[in-house]
Automatic annotation (TrEMBL):
Residues 986-1055, 1088-1193, 1202-1289 form the SpaA-like prealbumin fold domain. Residues 687-801 form the Collagen binding domain. The chain crosses the membrane at residues 1416-1438. Belongs to the serine-aspartate repeat-containing protein (SDr) family. Residues 1296-1371 form the MucBP domain. GO terms for molecular function: collagen binding. It comes from the Bacteria. It comes from Enterococcus rotai. Residues 82-133 are annotated as: Disordered. This is Cell wall protein.
Length: 1444
């Protein structure tokens, strides 16, 4: 009655609480998208389910009402109670209901994105270490919309993606049936939900790429995504570059470098460097003229070593401020120029190491270093670089003036900045001319050239310098400032040559000085104009190196000025030594007529006489006076042609005198060029269009007089000689233009000419020519070859030919020429993303152009494209098709025709692929174009399309019959695509029933959990009186359902207490038999089982143990008993307690026990075990009972201990033996041994032996006894705890030999031997020997013997284990002894023959003493034998009786 009253009060309180629920809660419970009130067609149970579900989710109230009337009344009261809320509250709730119905069109400000995942296309998250993206790498973005326990209101939501995410095009998608989404190119995501979703979780997947960051952008990026509830998710991404590092060597000066600054960049890719990683640097020097390298320490000093950490940009440049590392971050070991840096801390920054290599001064002065190489091993990767040294000890500037007699002009040359000094903007070069005749000079033809300085004394002339390099506006004055205006960065060290002319109006003799200077130095030149009307010329074409002769020309008064001279003095210079008689030719030209030659007559117009240093010409007649004639004197002189070398000088000087005028003079100097010493010169040129090499050989410029000039020219195998191209041509001259020696030729020489070959043998690749009539004439030979191997794999091919020239085997020379020609096949690949459609890429591939005579044959193009980062995803590119290809001839630009000019295939065949290993990833995207005709070059254009964002690498390989060449290009596609996923809404209907009766149960409370996280979704429902409950309006999917409260009197369902996965059901499933999930509950159980298991110490079950059971409650102990009907009862009398016996499994089970504390008390132990009456307590709890869990305990018993007695006796006498040692060994563990020794009673006791199987071993026998080899098995078990055994031992027999000798040691009788038990004694006497008398006994005096003698009488002997020998010594007597004439033989005594020992049983025959009578020894012996036999029998039968 009290319980009923309690529940009535509870129901009233619940109804009051229900009436306080606001109208808004009521509306949210019953209003939905499809219905606004409970339909009249809806069953009462469904309506009830809706109400209970809503209430349970809010308050988890258990409704115990079970009738339909009560439910209807509750609904009605709830509505009435809601309407009783104050009017203002009612109005608010009504407006909220109307607002909810319009939310599909309402703009929401809430951020629905609850999580973001940024991954590569394979789904692996990008990070800063293991999965770093490339620049503009493809990405996959997963946006989670909503969470498991969130209710998403209908409406429109907006979300902005970070600017780092590139969106190339607008995309859109759906979220199942509940909504849609769009994403535009600005990164704005718009999400629309058409209806409110409870527990909705959706996902939008977007595939795109990162934006193309600028080159100066940092590799480390932080991309932040805003999340719901003002949260955010950040991705720290470290983009990756290719390459590990570099070594940069920078000279402080291009020439005469004294400091080389070294910068070693490491970890440019910004991997994570672990502690103890090292940078090992070694410097080496290569000296000029040396073949190997050596350590740089002898020439270089390393200073200013620093280590920095710095960031890296997308373009691979260092950015930001470098951080100087300290000693706590790295260690430096320096051994001269060898450096080792060990990093102490982990870092992912770029590590930069810098230092200066200071070159020692003497190495610079001596110009001895060729290069400095630096080798670095960076975290296991090797890098190297080197810098070459150039030396420039040229002067800063030089000034030179050359007077041209013919033009009466001075050519001034200024070579400036030859020492490669830095020229600052505004540098001023001042040129000052000084002439004593004012304003006589006219300035013209200023030209400024570039000079290329390669080192000391190595300078070449370049082209004209740009006009903006120098301000020459002041030119034309006697003082001119040239201003440097080239604003170049870095500052220029260029050298220049200034060349200009000054024309002389007044030829009066004088000296003109020109000085040039700047802030660093100066130089000057002087030109002497006295005389200014004479010139001396060496005729280069006349040089005869064989005979040592050369022609000279002297020209006087070239301008036809009025002048007078009476004498011409010619002075020989270097190597010139004699005028050739009769070689002179002297003539003049009258003024106004330089064409009519007027010879002068020797002796009439002039005289010529040799001098020691030259010769003198004296003018005669009218030619001594003032004249305007131009005089020309030519002659031949000899020169020293022995041991002549390139660069040797020939010089000569001439001067005029007469009528007191200032002397006028001129000189000529000539340096011997190489072609005059080397026999000639060979040139080669190449016609790239025709593919032809033209070789020209100039021979005998030195005028050697050949007996027979022989020319052999073997053409190398990579060329093919054109036999018809061989020409014999005139050799005009060989010109040396600033080091560029050129063979100048003239007209063809025809047969019959002395210069035409007298023998011509032309083979395939060999030329043999003989010139037997050429004498000292010069000639040139020209022919053509064509490359025989082009096109080849190497782009450049060097061609060289050597012509061998001799004079019938002597005067030999080799004339060599070589030229490097681009004849290799080459592939050029270009790719660009289409500006119209980002999914398209336009590709162009072309070859280089081959010459006409060497076209491509069997040309094949193979092309494949894949991802530049193969680890990210599968390739998504593909060629559009054959229509996408445009193939052209490069020369004509004509389009080639498919099928006629080329074929194309898209399937890779390894056997048909000439590219071989040069093609990568051919199994993804591949095509091959086979050209059917020869071609000089082709261009292929085509398009590819991609479906996803990707960094595409395209490789093209051209092959022909002789060569192969590959090239590649990359493009970065950003193609944005996406999809949406999520769930619709459904319900999970449940029914709660009794497990046995299947009757519905109310009051069971269930809770909904997320399947993955197993977190509660906050939804709870309670079963009604029909057992029904349902989770409504949850997103479709699988959920974990748990029962958190069981109906009264029932246990929680075991499965649902842990949680069971159930899927939502839709309205379409309502007729499905499995639409409702039935959950059964078991009633609560009040009694349980207790169990005791009886085991030994090894855990083995023991049967036969007896126990009684006690129960303690409130300090009182009772004992379990059963009445006659077998019903349990409890008694205070222990003697009336029921005895439980353990079964074969050692178990005692007692059922029907209520919760409490119980004890088992052992009253009888199993056989062989010790009794342990200590109680074993068991606690039976309510929880154990309800879970049907038996309470089990164990009771262990110890085995009883056993013993073993060993009796030791003599085998024959059965007498107890002491001193025997026995060992008892456990068979289970042989290492466990027990050793005991028998006492005086012959007993050895082994006590407290655990039950087991043993082996008994005799390890030591008693003294005088043989060891008994036994291995007796002893079993100690419950049936035989105490064991006893007897061990018999046989005695050891000892032996004594008696030896008989006289006093001289001579044996006088046979040896006697007696045997007996070791340790026993026997009386013996020496035997009588005829003619002898016993004197003494000899025996060894061992310690044992001495000890024994202390206890034995003279006639006693003791048997020992070791054999004994006793020597009896006799002395001879003169009186024969009295002896018994006859001694009866006995079977026990054996005579020992001479030299042979025989055994005699002295135990049975007593040896007689000297003179002793032995008539009755038979009777004594017989009596002894009888007594012995009788004693033996008595002992035998006594022992046998004992054993029985």
């Amino acid at each position: 009655m009290k319980r009923q009253k309690f529940w009535i009060v509870m129901v009233l309180l619940l109804m009051i609480a229900n009436s306080l629920i606001p109208v808004v809660s009521f509306a949210e419970t019953f209003l939905s998208e499809n219905t606004s009130e409970i339909s009249t067609s809806t069953s009462t149970s469904e309506a009830l389910n809706t109400v209970i579900s809503s209430e349970s989710s809010e308050s988890a109230v258990i409704n115990e009402t079970s009738t339909e009337d009560t439910v209807a009344k509750q609904i009605e009261e709830s509505v009435v109670a809601s309407t009783e809320v104050p009017e203002k509250s009612a109005e608010t709730s009504t407006s909220e209901v109307k607002l909810e119905s319009r939310q599909a069109k309402a703009q929401q400000t809430e951020n629905l994105i609850t999580n973001v995942t940024l991954t590569d296309p394979k789904g692996v998250e990008y990070d800063t270490t293991t999965n770093r993206p490339q620049r503009q790498a493809p990405l996959k973005l997963s946006l989670q919309v909503g969470t498991e326990n969130q209710t998403i209101q209908a409406g429109t939501y907006e979300y902005q993606l970070p600017a780092d995410i590139a969106i190339s095009n607008n995309i859109s998608g759906r979220l199942e049936t509940v909504g849609s989404w769009t994403l535009d190119t600005t990164g704005k995501l718009t999400i629309i939900f058409n209806e409110t979703v409870v527990n909705g979780k959706y996902q939008i997947d977007i595939e795109t790429s990162f934006i193309p960051y600028s080159d100066d952008s940092d590799l480390l990026k932080t991309i932040t995504f805003s999340l719901a509830n003002n949260q955010e998710k950040k991705y720290e991404l470290l983009f990756k570059l290719s390459g590990e590092g570099s070594i940069n060597l920078k000279k402080n000066k291009n020439f005469n470098t004294d400091i080389v600054s070294t910068e070693i960049k490491t970890n440019i890719n910004r991997q994570t460097i672990q502690p103890n990683e090292t940078i090992v640097v070694k410097s080496k020097i290569n000296k000029n003229g040396a073949t190997g390298t050596e350590n740089a320490s002898a020439y270089v000093t390393v200073k200013n070593v620093k280590v920095f950490a710095q960031d890296v940009s997308m373009g691979g440049s260092l950015i930001g401020e470098p951080t100087l590392l300290g000693s706590e971050e790295y260690t430096l070991q320096q051994n001269n120029t060898d450096l080792t840096v060990t990093l102490k801390k982990e870092t992912n920054k770029a590590i930069i190491m810098t230092y200066d290599s200071v070159i020692k001064e003497e190495s610079i002065v001596n110009e001895e270093l060729y290069n400095l190489s630096t080798e670095a091993t960076i975290y296991g990767t090797s890098l190297s670089n080197y810098v070459y040294f150039q030396y420039n000890h040229n002067p800063h500037m030089t000034k030179k003036g050359e007077y041209n007699v013919k033009t009466n002009t001075i050519v001034w040359t200024i070579d400036y900045n030859l020492d490669s000094t830095e020229l600052a903007l505004g540098t001023k070069l001042t040129d000052i001319l000084t002439d004593e005749v004012p304003n006589d000079l006219t300035f013209s033809n200023l030209k400024i050239y570039n000079l290329y300085v390669y080192g000391t004394g190595s300078i070449s002339l370049g082209g004209l310098a740009p006009s903006n390099h120098w301000d020459t506006s002041g030119f034309g004055q006697y003082t001119t400032d040239y201003i440097y205006t080239n604003n170049q960065s870095p500052t220029s060290t260029a050298a220049y040559r200034f060349v200009y002319e000054t024309a002389i109006q007044n030829p009066s003799p004088r000296e003109i000085e020109n000085k040039v200077s700047d802030s660093l130095g100066s130089d000057d030149a002087k030109v002497n104009l006295a005389p200014s009307n004479i010139s001396k010329i060496l005729e280069e074409d006349s040089l005869d190196m064989t005979s040592g002769t050369v022609d000279w020309s002297i020209i006087v008064n070239n301008k036809h000025w009025g002048m007078q001279f009476s004498q011409m003095i010619d002075q020989f210079g270097e190597r010139v030594n004699e005028l050739v008689d009769g070689s002179e030719d002297f003539y003049y030209y009258a003024k106004g007529d330089d064409k009519t030659k007027h010879p002068l007559v020797a002796g009439q117009d002039y005289t010529i006489s040799k001098t020691s240093s030259g010769f003198t010409v004296n003018m005669l007649g009218i030619h001594q006076g003032i004249t305007t004639n131009k005089y020309v004197l030519t002659y031949t002189s000899k020169f020293d042609n022995t041991d002549i070398k390139v660069g040797d000088e020939l010089s000569n000087k001439v001067s005029l005198t007469g009528n007191g005028n200032i002397p006028m003079e001129a000189s000529a100097t000539f340096n011997i060029p190489s072609f005059l010493v080397e026999g000639g010169k060979k040139n080669v040129s190449y016609n790239s269009n025709e593919g032809v090499l033209t070789w020209t050989i100039g021979i005998n410029e030195e005028r050697h007089k050949y007996k027979n000039l022989i020319l052999n020219d073997d053409i190398e195998s990579i060329q093919k000689l054109d036999k018809n191209s061989i020409e014999i041509v005139e050799l005009d001259k060989i010109v040396n233009d600033n080091g560029n020696v050129t063979v100048m030729t003239g007209a063809k020489i025809q047969p019959g000419d002395d210069r035409y070959p007298t023998v011509m043998e032309i083979k395939d690749n060999q030329i043999h020519l003989e010139f037997s009539t050429i004498g000292n004439k010069k000639v040139a030979v020209r022919y053509k070859t064509a490359p025989s191997t082009a096109p080849v794999s190497d782009y450049y091919t060097k061609f060289s030919n050597i012509a061998k020239v001799s004079d019938e085997g002597s005067y030999t020379h080799e004339l060599k020429a070589e030229l490097t020609v681009p004849l290799g096949i080459n592939t050029y690949k270009i790719g660009r993303v289409s500006t119209v459609d980002n999914k398209l890429a336009n590709w162009t591939i072309r070859t280089n152009i081959m010459p006409a005579n060497r076209p491509y044959k069997q040309l094949v193009l193979e092309d494949t494209f894949t991802l530049s980062d193969l680890s990210k995803a599968e390739n998504t590119n593909f060629v559009i098709g054959t229509d996408a290809f445009v193939v052209r001839d490069q020369l004509t630009n004509n389009i080639l025709r498919l099928g006629e000019d080329y074929d194309i295939t898209f399937t890779y065949d390894q056997d048909q692929s000439p590219a071989g290993s040069a093609i990568k990833s051919y199994d993804t995207n591949y095509f091959k174009i086979t050209f059917k005709k020869e071609t000089r070059g082709v261009t292929v254009e085509y398009q590819t399309v991609t479906t996803k964002s990707a960094n595409i690498r395209n490789t093209a390989v051209f092959t022909n019959d002789k060569a192969i060449k590959a090239d590649w290009a990359t493009v970065n596609h950003t193609v944005t695509s996406g999809s949406g996923s999520g769930k619709g809404v459904g319900q999970i209907p449940l029914k709660k029933v009794d497990a046995q009766t299947q009757q519905p149960l109310s009051g069971a409370v269930f809770e909904l959990f997320d399947k993955e996280s197993q977190q509660s979704l906050g939804l709870k429902i309670t079963s009604d009186q029909d057992g029904n409950a349902a989770f409504q309006s949850v997103a479709e999917g699988e959920y974990l359902v748990k029962e958190i409260t069981a109906p009264d009197g029932y246990k929680l369902s075991e499965d649902y207490e842990k949680g069971v996965l159930l899927s939502t059901k839709s309205d379409d499933d309502i007729n499905d038999p499995n639409y409702v999930t039935t959950i059964e509950n078991e009633r609560i159980i009040t009694t349980g089982d207790i169990e005791l298991k009886k085991v030994d110490t090894d855990g083995q079950a023991l049967s036969g143990a007896e126990f009684i059971l006690s129960h303690s409650e409130q300090g009182q102990t009772t004992f379990y008993q059963e009445n006659e009907q077998g019903q349990p009862n409890w008694t205070a009398n222990q003697n009336e307690a029921k005895v439980f016996t353990s079964n074969d499994e050692g178990l005692i089970l007692v059922s029907g026990m209520s919760a409490g504390t119980y004890s088992f008390i052992e009253t009888k132990a199993p056989a062989g075990y010790q009794l342990d009456s200590t109680p074993v307590s068991l606690e039976l709890t309510k929880e154990k009972i309800e879970s049907k869990t038996k309470v089990t305990e164990r009771k262990e018993n110890q085995l009883l201990l056993g013993s073993l007695r060993v009796n030791k006796i003599d085998l024959e006498t059965k007498q107890a033996l002491s001193g025997a040692e026995f060992t008892l060994v456990s068979q289970a563990d042989p290492d466990k041994k027990i050793t005991k020794t028998t006492n005086k009673a012959g007993i050895a006791e082994f006590k407290d032996l655990p039950q087991a199987t043993y082996t008994l071993i005799e390890t030591k026998a008693p003294v005088g006894y043989l060891l008994k080899e036994i291995g007796e098995i002893i079993e100690i078990n419950p049936e035989h705890l105490n064991r006893e055994t007897t061990i018999e031992n046989a005695p050891i027999a000892g032996e004594i030999k008696f030896h008989h000798i006289d006093t001289n040691g001579k044996e006088i009788a046979d040896d006697d031997i007696i045997k007996g038990k070791v340790g026993t004694t026997q009386k013996v006497q020496p035997k009588e020997i005829k003619g002898y008398r016993f004197k003494e006994k000899q025996q060894s005096a061992s310690r044992l013997r001495v000890n024994l003698d202390q206890f034995l009488s003279t006639d006693d002997v003791m048997f020992t284990e070791a054999p004994q020998t006793i020597v009896y010594v006799y002395e001879q007597v003169s009186v024969p002894p009295i002896v018994d004439p006859t001694i009866p033989k006995e079977t026990d005594v054996t005579k020992i023959k001479s030299k042979t020992t025989k055994t005699t049983s002295l135990a049975k025959k007593k040896l007689p003493r000297t003179n002793e009578q032995t008539e009755y020894w038979y009777s004594v012996l017989g009596n002894s034998v009888l007594v012995s036999l009788l004693g033996y029998c008595v002992i035998y039968y006594y022992r046998k009786k004992q054993l029985d």
